[in-house]
Structures are given as C-alpha cells and as structure tokens.
Specification:
Structural class of chain B: alpha/beta
Helix content of chain B: 25-40%
Radius of gyration of chain A: 23 Å
Strand order of the largest sheet of chain B: 6-7-8-3-9-10
Largest sheet of chain A: none
Distance between the termini of chain A: 55 Å
Shape of chain A: globular
CATH topology of the largest domain in chain B: Rossmann fold
Order of helices and strands of chain B: EEEHEEHEHHHEHEHEEHEHEEHEHH
Number of strands of chain B: 14
Low-confidence stretches of chain B: 303-311
Number of domains of chain B: 2
Radius of gyration of chain B: 23 Å
Order of helices and strands of chain A: HHHHHHHHHHHHHH
Distance between the termini of chain B: 29 Å
Number of strands of chain A: 0
Mean pLDDT of chain A: 91
Oligomer: heterodimer
Number of domains of chain A: 1
Number of helices of chain B: 12
Low-confidence stretches of chain A: 1-5
Strand content of chain A: under 5%
Largest interface: A-B, 32 and 37 residues
Amino acid sequence: MQPSPEATGTIYDIGYRDYDGPRLGRRGAISAILWAGLRSVYGMGRSGRSKVLPWGAVILAVIPAGVAVAIKVLVGDVVELYSYENYLWQIGALLPVFVAAQAPELVVNDMRHRVLPLYFSRPISRLDYVLAKLGALTIGLLPLTLLPVLLLFVGHVLAAEDVIGTLGDEVGSLPAILGSGLIHAIVLASIGLAICAVAGRRAYAAGAVLALFLIGSVTSGIFQEQGGGLAGIAPFVHPLAILDGVREWLFGGTVDGSPVASAGVPMPLYGLATLVVLGVCWLVLAIRYRSVTT
Amino acid sequence: MPLISTRALTKRYPGGVTALDALSVEIGEGVIGLVGANGAGKSTLIKILLGLLPATDGAATVLDLDTATQGAAIRERVGYMPEHDCLPPDVSATEFVSHMARVSGLPRGAARERTADVLRHVGLYEERYRPIGGYSTGMKQRVKLAQALVHDPRLLFLDEPTNGLDPAGRDEMLDLIERIGRDFGITVVVASHLLGEIERVAGWLVAIDAGRLLRTAPLSSFTERTGMLLVETEEDGESLAARLVGRGIEAVADGRSVVVDLATGGGGEYAVYDALRDEAIDLGLAIVRIEHRRHQLEDLFRDGGVDAAIA
C-alpha cells in the first residue's frame, strides 16, 4: 500500500510557545475543580462501569415519581402514592449509597497520592479547594434530592385538568421542594466529604459512610420502637431523620414512619441538630485540610 | 530587576526549629541552583516564595509581588514541582495535566492545547493517554515537570527533580531543565543536594546551610577547583600517601582511601596519574577504584563550610 503524501507529513518541532491568552485566576481554578468534580461524581470521562452506580441511583430515585405521575395521568387521583413531603424519606436508602460510592472519588485520591500540594501551588487557597469539592458533591446530589420531587410537582400540575389552577394551588410547595432538596444535598455532601477526608482509602471512606447511615438508621428504629424517652432521641442518631425533622420544622408536613413523628420534641431542635452536624463536618474538613503539608 | 528578592527572611517553626535565619538574597534570570544539605531550608524557602507559608520575620518578593499578601497572583505565574510523588494513578497524563492547567486559570481550549505541547516537550508521546499508575519513575517525573510548566510560568521551582531516577533518566531530566532555561526562556530554580548535578545545568548558585545564606555566586566560582582524586585501596592507604607526598604531590590518607590533589606535584594532571600508578605498583598495593571527587554538599559543608572548601 502506498501511503498518500498528505498522510505522512513530517512533524516539525515548532519549539516552545508562550501563552499570552487570558488567565482566569482563582475563579477559573475554582470552577475547574467544581466541574471536574461533578464530572467524576457521575463517572463522565471514566469507564462505563463507574457510570453505573451514580446514574442507576438517579434513575431509581426518579422512578417512583415517574410511576406516581403515570398513575395519576392514566387512572386519575385514586391514591396519593407520594407527596412532596415524604418523597425524600421514601428514597432515603439511595442517598447514603450514592454518597458512599461517589464522595471518595472526589477527595480521597488527592489526599492519598499527595496531589494537594499541586493544587495549593496554584492560585487557590485550601478553603477554595474544599468549597469547590463540597459544591461539586452538593450539585451532584441534587438529581436525587431535588429532581424527582420537581418531577412529581410538574407531573401533578400537567396531569391536572385545570393546569393553570393547579399550578396556582401547588406553586406554594415550591419553596419547600427547593429548600428541602438543597438542605439534604448540602448536609449529605458535608457528611460524605468529612468522612472521606479522614479515611485514608476509598474503600474505608465508602464503608464508613455506609456504616454511619446504617447504624444510625437501625439505632433510630430501635429507639423508636422502645418509645418513651428513647423515642425522643431516636431522630437524632440518624442523619436522614434529622434532615426529615428540619424539613418538617421549616416547611411542615409529617412523614409516616419517620422517627420525627413519634419523637415529640420541639421542632427547632432539628434545626440546631442540623447546624451541629454541619459545624462538626466543616470543622473536621478545616482541621484535616489545614494539616496537609505542601 | 531580580525575579526573587528576600530581605532578612526568617522562619521559625513552633517546635523551635529555625528553618531560615535572616536570609537575604536576590535571584535573577537563568537556571539557578539552590543547594544545601537536606534540612538546610530549601523547601521552606520555596514554600514561602510560593506564598504557602508565612515568614516569621523579614519579607520576600517574587516577580515584584509580595509573598505575604499576593500569594495567589504569584502562584498564577509560577510553576512548582515537588520532591515527593504527587500524581493520581487512575487518570492519564493528558487528563491530569490539562486539569492542572485549568486550575492554574487557563481556559479549557488553551489548557488542552498547551497540555499537548508541553507533554511533547517533556517527551511523553503515546503513553500520555494511559493511566499514570502504569508509568515508570522517569515518566512520572516528566508528568510532574509538565504540570509545573503547562501554564507558561515566568519562574519554575523544581525540588530535587532527579530524585529516584536512574543515570540515564537523570541525564534526560537535566537536559530538559537546561532547555527550559535556555530555549523556553523560563527562569528555573533547582533545589538539590547534589552539587554534581547542579553543576551541569545551573549558571548561578545559591548555597544555604542551616537556613543561612552561605554564598551566592556564578557557578564558575564554585567549581574553580575540582581537581581532587579519590583513590580507594585494598589495604591501608597511608604508605601510598606518604610516597606521593615524597614526590611533592599533596595526598591525604583516610583509612583505605587517599585523596590526591591533581594540581600539585608540578608535572600536571597526567604526571600525578603516572606517579600514582608507579607508586602503587612499587608498593604492590591493589587499587580498588579511582574517581574524580564528586562535590557533594555534605563535603563542602564539612569543617569550615563552603567558603573553606572552595576557597
């Protein structure tokens, strides 16, 4: 076979070229870390295998909303399967699994393989780095904590006979949907990153996240069964129950089966508990990243 | 206008260790060797210059920017290659270096273009699409250099860049450093404890010891006198040294080795070799090894410090 002359050009060494284009500085750096983080949370640019879990979790989180909307469209208002209030509690098991699988991806390798000095020798601070990673995981969680409930909302509205009227009735729920989704995402992301930052390896980090939620859930369930004084502390040993509590405190609507219903403690306590959880997580992150030597 | 300037720069760590002690130095363009034994304060100096570590006292500017207040602006135009491993194993060199370019503030397109350029310059070709975990030490060092170079810095800090490399890899790395300084027009500060390597690439030397500036001068003034020969013998070297001294050659025995000054004896370097050979044969002394004495900083800094050693 005779190669065509065009295809066999010589590679010329054109020497070193300066760069005179724009430099986006700290802002560019933060957004680069955030986007790269978001891509890695969803396994973009990685093997097909690393996409299975995050996308699978999103699909599983959205299916109940899709089914509920489909039934409403096909059969009508026979039964209300999911409300905006109880949706996140119902898909609760998915959230820790997602965090356990995807949060280590974001931070563990940078720490373990000492990549951090390369980040910190660029125009960002340690805080910028942590905030960008936190932002990536928070945004990455929104397709689970916000998207399905929004879908439920849109379905409710569009399936109604009087779309405009229903929109008017339902629009009041939007702040609750957005607020609850955002709070869930931020708190879960903070817990996930804090655990990953102190765990040395991805597997340990994933195990620790799962353990926290599993033990929390089981303990909370037992306390709830016992009733009495124990029922009062039942929600506070399980992060998802604390989140359900703060949701109820801020936006109202009781969820059947949640330990919050049977606890009977003043609702602002859930707000306080959420702040304590966030505070502890951020403190852990601050201490851990301050101690990284460059 | 110096690129780097420090005035009485001092760094004391909480434990009471003084890493830098009133260091005042000005560094201009070119390839600069920052030499000192391990623990002399080289890495501390680099971190302060990058604006990553506050100085206890004194001040420093890099590219006319204050390290205490304008660290981020400095780090936008400076590249840094750490001494230790710092690469994630599960991404490719292309992916990693272009990500690092973006974290340095380059837009996406420019980051991609410069990554391809720089990886070619450091000598990574097809393998750049494979995960870094499978690279040899030499290839990893090239990736580390590429990430420091990708955003076209004005100034490059390399901390022990030949660490862990075999002799061939070391030569290639040194050639690369030389090219960066000469052809790319980027000032390179190479921190090393191996004077022999610094000699090959640097035009200017900054020697520090225990956080103090020992000497800053063009390389030539450090290497004016390298004519020492280290002769290792099978038995005690005392008799050989005595014979050489008898011929007017300066020679000092130290156990089984003899240090011979090639510049003495009056007959030139080759006369010293001949004398060495003749006397060894005459004594029936087996010689294990003869080598030109390699200047290591440990030697230079021993008794009397650098000035005594090179005076």
